[in-house]
Amino acid sequence: MTNLKKIKRPLLYAGLSMTLLGQGAFAQDRGSSADQLQVSWQVKEGQNIRKNPVSTLILKNKGKSNLQLNDWSLWFNFIRSIDPNAIDKRFAIAHRNGDLFELSFHRSNFILKPQDTVHIDFVTTGLVNYTDGPIGLYLKNNRSGKATDVVDYVASKTAPQSETEKVNYFAYKYDQNKLVDGVAAQPIIPMPASIQTDNTKKFTLKAGTKYFVDSGFAKEGAFLTDFLSRYTGIHLSNSREQESSIRIIKTKGLKPESYRLTIDAAGVRIEATDNAGAFYAIQSLKSLLNHQQWHKTAKSIALPHSRIEDSPRYGYRGFMLDAARNFHSKDEVLRILDLMATYKLNKFHFHFIDDEGWRLEIPSLPELTAVGANRSTDFESGKAIQPAYGSGAGTRSKQYYTVADYMEILRYAQARHIEVIPEVETPGHARAAIKAMRARYEHFMKNGNKQKAEEFLLDDAADKSVYNSAQNWNDNVMNPALPSTYHFLSTVVDEIKAIHDKAGVPLKIIDLGGDETPSGVWEKSPKVAAFMQQNNISNVLDVWPLYIAKINKLVQEKGLTMSGWEEMGMRNKGKGMEVNADLGTSGIQLNVWNNLPGQGQEDLAYRLANAGYKVVYTSAANNYLDMSWDRDFADPGHSWVGTVNLNKTYSFAPENFFINLRKDDTGKDLVKEAYTNKETLTARGRQNLLGIKGALWSEKVATDQRLEEMIFPRLIAIADRAWGPEQAWEKGDSFDEAAYRKAYTAFARKLGEDELRKLGLINGGYRYRMPKIGVKQENNQLLINTDYPEFKVYYTDNGSVPTAQSKQVDGSIPYQQGKKYQFKVFDTAGRSSDVIIY
């Protein structure tokens, strides 16, 4: 975040279309003030929104009685910084902590009459899209403390943009969407290591077809028969191997997760050495079917003769879900696991603990969920944490996973050959835990039990250190000098391990975070000063590697592997973070995200792997799925790594990241020579690269629908890159763009022709992101396409909004100057995209 003092402050005003009444006026009943308040937010026109833009909050009294604003304050969450000095003096906007702001009204008798409005301008750091706007608005009475959500609130999705800019953007989208003509869809997603198909020869699968399953693969056999009956209506008949046309055979000598799949005149033969291999062979068989064959109306299915020999490129193929910032239910997690399994992803990194929420029940420490999973406007009482990321004034019941929930998730994942890796954040991103243990401390201190109170305490009340975290918290870091910090971590790890054992899914790896500990921490802590003296440390920066070594030992003594974010393998000697070679062979597994083009850390994953760390490449530049797809103000998501569309995700070359770097996160061209001195993977480093992972941080993802739209179909591209073999365009020193475009076209065609239509059928349908439309004018024609193919575009030219009954575009339509054209995409389930107007 940009420091506030760097914001340029123009002269601002609050434009008032209202009447200020005298002292004798009566405000309305305070309990319903929020109900009669209408609020909207918009960005002012005529400015560069990415450089300290001016935003406007518009408050309207839509009721029938006066609203006395100075009796109230308006609170909201806002992910950007606000300049408190660049606002009309009748108002004040104060940053409270994290993303929480308070707008107060200074005039002593500030009354808004019915139907009147007040416009409040303020300056912020750069904006990219409408999800950067204020959310979670609530009114809080200054006398009673009662808070009520502002229900009638709208954030404008329209940014200041000229017609020329719109036309240029649509043309840019059209060029970006174009695929290579004459390239067929790849047969399976993810792409197998080796596949041969003969579409002139078919094996017909029909009701009553006999099947045989080796006794060791009974669960996988049940999975296949259940799929066929549920989605195709075809029921198989169990029989002996010699009489069967479908055979799932246990064989020797194949690598883990590998399989052979043969389809010929004799039928379907699956061979695997382990259960995962048999399971993935069935997923490939499902992918071979086109989407029409997934409908129950089919009486038979014709399968092309095929020979597939397949092994994954990487043993670690993962996805991280943040369920701490915004909670997502157990049922939604199970839906995500189903699609992970469909596309052969095998590691679920479960990030359910962060500053803004503790989302897992720990029976011995009930405060963690009683306080840490409870957001309230009464947070100053210490019995809850503050509203965040749009949670508002209302409390929501059980925003955490019970022990029973978590066990169900573990077993569900295990049945789909997915390992769940839980994450407990330390020392930073720990505010929910810190506040919960502080509440526990206060409780036992009131009862006179000092020993019990301090047992799990995570912060030092005498610590006067000043810091500001990446999410603008000033109190979110555990104190490494407290023995109770280690006792807390040991207890939590033990309890999570016990839950895994009870579920019959042993815990192997636990992630302890380690990311984004802000500068300035511990510098003025008396406890840390004593800790440094005890350990012969003269620089507070050296507390960090010591802490990492201590918690790694704690985890290893429990028979577990510790994983964490890249900072665990780094240290600061006074000139910024650098690789800490001392812990390279300590067994720590690192998730490396920082590779932003043009920022200097593009080779960090390789440097850490070369130093001996086991690395999971979690490329922010390609695989952070909370990023917006496009620089379109109506497109949701973060933007700090630039945009991440499907093409960008697919283009990730894990072992040769520099091969296709063209632009930085702002779109500026990069000079290839900038990477001349960057490290590449050594033979040792290549062995230490365990795999790749996608990640979704949920600050801007409050609903399950938004979650699925942000994840899919980009996660499918990650799966293809994680499983499929290294491709020719990834190798060497020069980028073969033609080869890349053909590979991407084959992937995109399979996705558009089949896979997304299947997503509309699985589990009642997934709400994947609808494709965006590109429009380009050439002569007297409008050329139309979408950013993944085979979706129908409908249009109108009479001012009405298109429906599925409107005229359909067939590549292009005639263009007449002066006419207004509106376009929409519809999928087979009837969902539609936003309308675009040309």
TrEMBL record:
EC top class, as a word: hydrolase
A molecular function (GO) term: polysaccharide binding
Key word Isomerase present: no
Species this protein is from: Sphingobacterium thalpophilum
EC number(s) per entry: 3.2.1.52
UniProt family annotation: Belongs to the glycosyl hydrolase 20 family.
InterPro entries in the record: Beta_hexosaminidase_sua/sub, CBM2/CBM3_carb-bd_dom_sf, CBM2_carb-bd_dom_sf, CHB/HEX_N_dom, GH, GH29D-like_dom, Glyco_hydro_20_cat, Hex-like_dom2
Full protein name: beta-N-acetylhexosaminidase
The Chitobiase/beta-hexosaminidases N-terminal domain, residue ranges: 35-174
Any Gene Ontology biological process: carbohydrate metabolic process
Reaction(s) this enzyme catalyzes, per UniProt: Hydrolysis of terminal non-reducing N-acetyl-D-hexosamine residues in N-acetyl-beta-D-hexosaminides
UniProt entry tagged with the keyword Hydrolase: yes
Signal peptide (UniProt feature, chain positions): 1-27
Domain of life: Bacteria
Keywords noted in UniProt: Glycosidase, Hydrolase, Signal
One CC-aspect GO term: membrane
Active-site residues from the entry: E516
